[in-house]
Amino acid sequence: MTQDRINLDTDTILEKDAHLIQSFADLNFLKDKSARTVISKADGTRVWDHDGNELIDGIGGLWCVNIGHRRQEVISAINEQLNTLDYYSTFYNFTHPTAVQLAEKLVSLAPANLTRVHFGNSGSVANDSAVRILHHYYNRIGKPQKKKILSRQGAYHGSTYLAMAMTTPAYSDGWDCARDLVTHLRCPHALREANGATEAEFLDLLMTEMRDKIEEVGSENIAAFIAEPIMGAGGIIVAPEGYHKRAIELCRAYDIKYISDEVVTAFGRLGHMFASEDVFGIQPDMITTAKGLTSGYQPLSATLFTDEIYDVIAGEGAMFLHGMTYSGHPAASAAALANIKVLETEQIPQRVRTSGKRFENNLRALSDLDLVGDVRGSHFMMGIEFVKDKATNESYPDAAKVGLRAARHCQARGLIARALGNILILSPTLVLTDEEIDDIARILRESIIATRADLNMEGF
Ligand SMILES: Cc1ncc(COP(=O)(O)O)c(C=O)c1O
Question: Which of the listed CATH numbers 3.40.50.2300, 1.10.3720.10, 3.90.1150.10, 3.30.9.10 matches domain 37-67+348-457?
C-alpha cells in the first residue's frame, strides 16, 4: 500500500491532494499545485520531496523532530509496544505500564514542584487541559468566578476553540473562539513595541501594564497567566531579561496561576529538557508540552501540575471529568520514552548548548544584509525579520510577500524554512553537524540576497 502511494508521480499526488485540507494555509493560493510540496521520505536532519530533491529540514517537521528523522530506537519501541499492548485507555480505573513509566520520567525531568501529569494528544489539548483543570480547581475551592486567562499578543497556544482564544488574535482573524475568556497583554517584542526604551525600561513598562490589567480585570476573576518561554509561531519573540521571573512574582502576589507553554521549548531546543526553570529561573504552576516529547514520531502531549492543584481536584467528592481516548496512548508513550532515552544517552540538550549557539551566532551574522532588520531567538529557535528600511525598521507591504520569497529561494537551494509574513523561522532538528549548520547559514545568505534582488526588480 505504501509502495502504491509512492509509485504515484508528483502530479497525480497533487491532483488527489485536492481532497486534503492543509492547516494554517491559504487554501485559495494552494489551488495552484505548484505552491505545494510533497514530502515523501526523511532521514536524520533531512527530508526528500517526491521528485527526489534532498532538503535540510530547517523546521524540524513542525518544531518537533528534535532527535532527527527515522531513528530506529524510537520506531522499534513503537513497534514493540504495539506488539505487546496496542491500545488500552487511561480512563476510569485503568492504567498501563508504559504511560506510568513516562509520567514518572517526566516528573523526574520537570521542575520539582510539578509532580502530576495528564496526557493528551496535541499541544492545543495540553493547553485546553491546563485551563479546564484550573477552572475545576477554582470551582472546588469556592472561587468559581476565577476563570479568565491572561495571555499576550503574539502568543501561539494552539487551535482548539479555547487554545485559539489564548493565541494572538491575529491568528483567528475571521474565525471565532472563546474570546471572552481571554485578555491579551502587550507583546514583549522590543523591535516593534519598545519605542526606543532600554531593555530594563521596556520590562518595567510591560510589568506595569500587566499589573494594571490585573487590577482592571480583577484578580478575583483571573485563573491564570499563560506564556511561552520564547514565543514561537508569533515570530520568535524573546521577552526582556527577567520578564518571566517578574511575571511569576506578579502572579504570586495576585493569586494567579502561571502556565508555562513548553510545547516548543522543552526537550532540548534551548539546551535543556525544560526551559522554564533551567533557562528562565521559574517554577510555574503548570507546564504544558508536546512536539519534542516524542520528536513527532507519535502524537502526544502532557500537562504537568502541582500537588497543590492535585490535592484539590482529587479531594473527596471530586470527579475528574476530562480526558481523551488517546490520553497516554501506549504507542505514543513508548515513543516518548525511547525519544527521551535518545536525548539523554546522546546528551543532545547538552550538545545543543554548543551547536545551538553556533547556529544562533551564524544566523546573527546575517544582520549585515540590507534586508535583515532583526535576527532573534535562542539556540535552535530562531527568526529573521526582513525590513524595507534598516534605519526605521519599516516593513514591506504584505503584497511583497518577502518571507515567502525567501523561503522559496531557500527551498530551491536545499533548505526548508518557514515564512511568517516578513519573518523567516528556523527550528531545525537538534542533531545538525557543524558543517550542516554552516551550510544553512550559507543558503540563507544566498537566498536573502536573491530575495532582495527580486524585490528591487519588482519595485518593492
Ligand atoms: C507554543 C505552542 N503551544 C501550543 C501549540 C499547539 O500544539 P499542537 O499543534 O500540537 O496542537 C503549538 C504549536 O505549534 C505551539 O507552538
Answer: 3.90.1150.10
Report CA torsion sign: 245, 249, 250, 254: positive
Terminal CA-CA length for the chain: 48
Query: What pLDDT is stored for residue 13 in this prediction?
Result: 96
pLDDT digits 0-9 by tens, 343-360: 999 999 999 999 999 999
pLDDT digits (tens, 9 = 90+) for 52-63: 999 999 999 999
Delimit the domains of the chain by residue range: 37-67+348-457, 73-345
pLDDT for 382 equals 98
CB distance 262 to 254 below 8 Å: no
Distance 388 CA to ligand 1 centre (A): 30
pTM: 0.98
* 410 CB-side CA count, 13 A: 26
State the closest ligand 1 atom to the C-alpha of 123, by its place in the atom list counted from 1.
Answer: 7
1 alpha carbon to ligand 1 midpoint, in Å?
Answer: 31
C-alpha cell, 411: 527551498
pLDDT of residue 7: 85
